[in-house]
Design brief:
The complex is a heterodimer of chains A (138) and B (164). Chain A has 138 residues and is mostly beta strands. Chain A has one domain. Chain A has one helix and ten strands; from the N terminus they run αββββββββββ. Chain A has a six-stranded mixed sheet, with no helix packed on it. Chain A has a four-stranded antiparallel sheet with strand order 4-3-7-8, with no helix packed on it. Chain B is α/β, with parallel strands linked by helices. Helices cover 35% and strands 24% of the residues of chain B. Chain B is built from six helices and nine strands, in the order H-E-E-E-E-H-E-H-E-H-E-H-E-E-H. In chain B, the strands form three sheets. Chain B has a five-stranded mixed sheet with strand order 7-6-5-8-9, with helices on both faces. A two-stranded antiparallel ribbon of chain B has the order 1-2. The chains are: A mainly beta (138), B alpha/beta (164). Chains A and B meet through strand 1 and strand 2 of A and helix 3 of B.
Chain lengths: 138, 164
C-alpha cells in the first residue's frame, strides 16, 4: 500500500508532459526567424518553411547524449521585431515568432530542442533575465 | 458630362443583378482564382470553380490551433450569416486533424462549409504562409483581394469588392 502511494507520488512529480510549469521549470525562448509580415504583438506560429513550429506541435528536449528529458507542446507565439528598422506604427512588418517554453527540470542551457521530429536545434544560454536558454530556428 | 461619366463608371462597375443582388465586377487586373475541389468534413466534395460561377466566394484559410484565427472568427461567422444568400464562405484548413477542425467549427458556431487541404496544394497556390488568410473571389472567379493575417474590415471589403 505504502509502495503504491510512493509510486503514485513519484508519477505525479515526474508527470511533466504538456509543458506545465510546476515551479521547478527553466524558461526557454524559441525564436522562429521566418521574417513573416505581421503586426507587432500579434499571436503567431511559424510561417512558410517553419510551419511545423506551431501551437500544439509536439516538442522534445534532449540532453547532450540524445536522451529525452522533457516532452511538451508548443504554445502560440508573439510577433516581435526581427530587424532594427522603424516601420510606421500599425504597419505589418517583417517579424520573428517568439515562443516561451517552460521546461520542467531544465537547469542549464544544454541539449537540443526537437520540434515535430525535425532536426534538433541546440539550446544556447540567454542573457535575458529569467530566461535560461534560447533556441533559434532559421 | 461629369455626372454622366460617373453614372457610366458606376454602371460598368456593377456587373450583374440577380434577385435583387448586385455583384461588383472584378477589376480587369484581377487574376483568375486558382480553381480547386475541397473535401469537406462531412466527406462530400465542393467544386469551388463551379460555386464562383454563381456567386462570390470568401475563402478563409485557418488552423484549429491558430489564436489569431479564433480571435477573428466571430466576425467572420456573423458575416457568413448576413450574406448567407449571396456570398459563399468556405473554410480551408491544412495541418489540423479532422477532429481538431470539427471542434474548432463547433466551438465557433461555423455554419459554412469547411474542408481540409491535407496535401497543402491549395494553401501553396494561394500563397498561405501562415493562417489566417482571407481571400475574396468575385462572381465569375477572379481573385480580387487577399489579406494575410486576416482583416478587421471584412464586411466593408465584401461591400467594396463583391456585393454592392
Amino acid at each position: 500500500m505504502r509502495a503504491g502511494v510512493l509510486i503514485l507520488a513519484a508519477a505525479l512529480l515526474l508527470g511533466g508532459c504538456g509543458g506545465e510549469d510546476t515551479g521547478s521549470s527553466g524558461t526557454l525562448r524559441l525564436l522562429v526567424l521566418d521574417g513573416n509580415l505581421r503586426q507587432l504583438g500579434d499571436p503567431c506560429n511559424g510561417a512558410g518553411p517553419f510551419d511545423y513550429a506551431h501551437a500544439d506541435a509536439d516538442y522534445v528536449i534532449e540532453d547532450g547524449d540524445g536522451t529525452e528529458v522533457f516532452r511538451g507542446e508548443l504554445p502560440n507565439g508573439t510577433a516581435e521585431k526581427i530587424m532594427d528598422v522603424d516601420f510606421r506604427a500599425g504597419l505589418r512588418q517583417p517579424t520573428m515568432c517568439a515562443m516561451t517554453l517552460h521546461v520542467n527540470g531544465l537547469t542549464t542551457a544544454e541539449g537540443d530542442l526537437v520540434i515535430d521530429n525535425q532536426d534538433g536545434v541546440p539550446i544556447e544560454p540567454s542573457d535575458e533575465p529569467g530566461v535560461l536558454g534560447e533556441v533559434t530556428v532559421s | 458630362m461629369r455626372r454622366t461619366a460617373t453614372a457610366l463608371a458606376l454602371a460598368l462597375a456593377l456587373t450583374s443583378c440577380s434577385a435583387g443582388t448586385t455583384y461588383v465586377e472584378a477589376p480587369p487586373t484581377a487574376p483568375p482564382a486558382p480553381a480547386f475541389t475541397l473535401t469537406l468534413l462531412d466527406g462530400t466534395t465542393l467544386d469551388l470553380a463551379e460555386q464562383w460561377q454563381d456567386r462570390p466566394v470568401v475563402l478563409v484559410f485557418f488552423e484549429s490551433w491558430c489564436e489569431l484565427c479564433a480571435r477573428q472568427q466571430a466576425d467572420i461567422t456573423a458575416l457568413s450569416e448576413e450574406y448567407r444568400d449571396t456570398v459563399l464562405f468556405v473554410g480551408v484548413g491544412h495541418e489540423s486533424s479532422r477532429e481538431e477542425t470539427t471542434t474548432f467549427v463547433r466551438d465557433n458556431d461555423i455554419g459554412y462549409p469547411v474542408g481540409l487541404d491535407a496535401s497543402g496544394d491549395v494553401w501553396r497556390r494561394y500563397r498561405v504562409d501562415e493562417p489566417p488568410l482571407i481571400a475574396l473571389v468575385s462572381k465569375g472567379g477572379r481573385l480580387v483581394r487577399g489579406w494575410p493575417g486576416g482583416t478587421d474590415e471584412l464586411g466593408k471589403q465584401i461591400q467594396r469588392f463583391l456585393v454592392a
